[in-house]
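Before the break, one more example. Copy the sequence into your notebook; we will annotate it together after we see the structure.
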Amino acid sequence: MTDPVHDPRFLQDPYPAYAAIRSTCPVQPVPGPDGRVSYLITGYAEAKEALGDTRLSKDTDAFFAGKASRRRLHPAVAHTMLASDPPRHTRLRTLVTKAFTTGAVTQLRPFIVTVTDDLLDRWPAGEPFDLVEALAAPLPVLVICELLGVPQEDRADVRRWSAELFAAGEPEVIDAASHALADYMTALIAAKRRGPGNCLLDRLIRARDADDRLSEDELLSLAVLLLVAGHETTTDFLACATLALLRHPAELDRLRSDPNEVPAALDELLRFDSPVSTATFRFTTQDLALGGTDLPAGVPVLVALGAANRDPRRFPDPDRLDLNRDASAHLGFGHGIHRCVGAPLARAEAEIVLRAVLTRFPGIRLAVAPERVQWRRTRLLRGPASLPVLV
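Here is what the structure looks like once it is written out:
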């Protein structure tokens, strides 16, 4: 299997390739560009098992210890909560979970509604425009920056650096962006210590300074992680969901006639085109068997969430968008102790956005043929780089 990032056909529609791989074996070795072998998981049952298997570690420090590397990724990006195992992961996750409970997200809803309406007010009538640029990208940035207390004048830079972190195939761009973001967050933390408030970042700083539940490095890495993970995936979720509906007129008509059905449709939209295409890095800590395949210790494991969500053994007729389907078991937010902590916020943003768009612009349609939509060149995430539409 060639590197999918450099295959335009795979970026456009990876699911036929995933289906072919799965039909051979749902867990199989794939060579990387450096010749090292990883194991790709494309089956639903196998993916769910792997995501919850404690024999698969996310501790990147342990995996890369002693391995030569030319990368200069900032430690705050390389050593986040996502790259850790319990008990460290448990301690860090506990500190941020309260910010994303249903109750906490409910308090953010008025802000999300206001920002959504402001963005929709700027949409031009009768001429093509990019829905990613006009809505899907700026909204989640504004929301997470509001949550973290990032000043208005800094948000454009934050958005650019965050996007550059996912520039697949451009390690120098990624490394430079990691340092820019970490340097910015270091300065923001210092500014908040001088003039504290009550946003999420302020609360994390107090947790660090009051009873030392965080090291200074952990505080910085959490701040960077929340900033990046809090909006990149939601941007792709909004764009993928909108495109899926525009490509399926019957399902679009259903929600257009009753926008109150939007919340119930979100699971199927997440299953159909998962914004997180491949789960973050894992590796085997011992020899183990998974899906009938023997995996040796010390090899990377790539869990293809998008492929798992199209496994016909779990979701019959998986390539059909069916809003009547019970898709609540999808793996779009992951599974187990590393399940996306921001899932309630992402769902709230998607619900508010889709409901508002369908209510205010019921005639929205694609401005280009679906096959001309350009997709992001990134290994982890899946979403249109731009989505030309007309209203």
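The chain has one domain: 4-390. The chain has a mean pLDDT of 91. Try to locate both features in your own notes.
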